[in-house]
Automatic annotation (TrEMBL):
Protein's pathway: Nucleotide-sugar biosynthesis; UDP-alpha-D-glucuronate biosynthesis; UDP-alpha-D-glucuronate from UDP-alpha-D-glucose: step 1/1
Entry keyword Phosphoprotein: no
Naturally occurring in which organism (per UniProt): Pseudolycoriella hygida
Active site positions: 279 (nucleophile)
InterPro entries cross-referenced by the UniProt entry: 6-PGluconate_DH-like_C_sf, NAD(P)-bd_dom_sf, UDP-Glc/GDP-Man, UDP-Glc/GDP-Man_DH_C, UDP-Glc/GDP-Man_DH_C_sf, UDP-Glc/GDP-Man_DH_dimer, UDP-Glc/GDP-Man_DH_N, UDPglc_DH_euk
Protein name: UDP-glucose 6-dehydrogenase
Gene: sgl
Sites where the protein binds NAD(+): 14-19, 39, 44, 92-96, 133-134, 168, 279-282, 349
Amino acid sequence: MSEELKITKICCIGAGYVGGPTCSVMAYKCPNIRMTVVDKSAERIEAWNSDKLPIYEPGLFEIVKERRNKNLFFSTDIPTAIREAELIFISVNTPTKNFGNGRGRAADLKYVEDAARMIAETAQSSKIVVEKSTVPVRAAESIMHILRANQKADVRYDILSNPEFLAEGTAVADLINPDRVLIGGEQTDDGLRAIETLSWVYERWIPKERILSTNTWSSELSKLAANAFLAQRISSINSLSAVCEATGADVSEVAKAVGLDSRIGSKFLQASVGFGGSCFQKDILNLVYICEGLNLPEVAAYWQQVIDMNEYQKTRFSQKIIECLFNTVSDKRIAIFGFAFKKNTGDTRETPAITVCKILLEEGAKLEIYDPKVEAEQIFSDLTSASVTENPEFVRQAVKVQSDPYTAVERAHAIVVCTEWDEFQSLDYNKIYGSMMKPAYIFDGRKILDHDALQKIGFHVQTIGKKLNRAGLLRSWGQIPQFN
Ligand code: UDX
Ligand code: ADP
């Protein structure tokens, strides 16, 4: 490997869900490269330097502990880290705009722009600047404009797009063994050299065949496309879950039969209460917005439908809960099992639990929420901003966050499973049944529980994409609950 390609210092701007784990694994796999992760939030950096990291990811703490203060540093001193680095990752947040043009759809590139300006002001030597945050197509061009318009003599910038495909909850495994690494850059001699340099970093632990290089726009669009395809599969199976409930087909059986076709594949066909997370909705909205801007309304409408189906699924599930509970949940105690957008993460961004809780709260329910990883204050904050009243007092009166599932279910009329945490499968449902109001209902929004066993205990069970055996219910309660 040629010496001139060697990178010794990397800076990453943004110590969030992407920047933190990515650089920790990079430091772990490249002990000779000094990684400095910087953030403007002193609180976040303090947490990265403590025993309680700001995000929960299986295996992450062990890696951080092993490399921290050796070749992995977390700091608020952004200028020094920029000055020293040969390569800079930008992994700041790119939320959906909540104001002005493109409100509710376009990505807000304010933080990316701030980071680019900071680099332009501070850098005293040439840098490779790598856009890692998920951004709209042609965002690299904007970064380039800012950097090159402020370029000092003897300082040159190469801009690369290197989208991150890690999924939360499996971030460490995804980073150690990714399906592919994508690097987009300008197809000029300088651009290709920059691609080769970043590729060299990844080649420390990833086989070269898995490192793909493209032009910048293909790389940016591929990230949006990958998320749109994944979300589309979930919306497709969720749309069929409604057909299953109405006809007696079982969506898991359909998913298995369909997924065994090797052209289709079995992954991402798990019907659920709906997809959440910081990426799917944001990226599709962004894609829709771009298509509209390109005067491609049919393409925009096609992808918009993936989001609309997800909204429909979340609302449909919530309405089913209300209908089954005799069309009123007013003052009923409902235990919510899981608030994170998926298992093995404490992240609640766009979690379907917010929609379900919001609808139940609007109908006057009292919620007892249990999630093994989400902090109580996060839940209150999410529900306050989602609530129609935005009144923190209303939410605090109607919601209790419990640290134990058995406390959450005491005197509850129903349990609603919103996240597929493994521990929900091994709870003592006999004990739970004993402490609940009767008839006791379980609404399994993730299709993870043993429904037959629950029915035998006496529960009324409803789930996604399957009409449950009413004979069992008849035996237990002498009535058939309304399903549709
Ligand atoms: C996603 C992409 O997978 C990842 O490549 C990208 O970098 C970021 O966005 P993430 O949002 O962390 O990752 O989680 P993911 O595992 O994709 O799940 C997203 C949502 O879809 C979750 O709410 C999950 O519960 C839901 N889901 C997933 C389903 O409802 N059914 C499935 O079959 C799979
Ligand atoms: P992601 O999921 O994309 O990683 P996060 O919101 O988890 O997004 O993390 C983004 C991080 O970037 C936040 O911790 C935020 O404080 C940080 N950040 C945003 N803008 C800047 C900036 N200009 N300089 C330094 N850090 C920034």
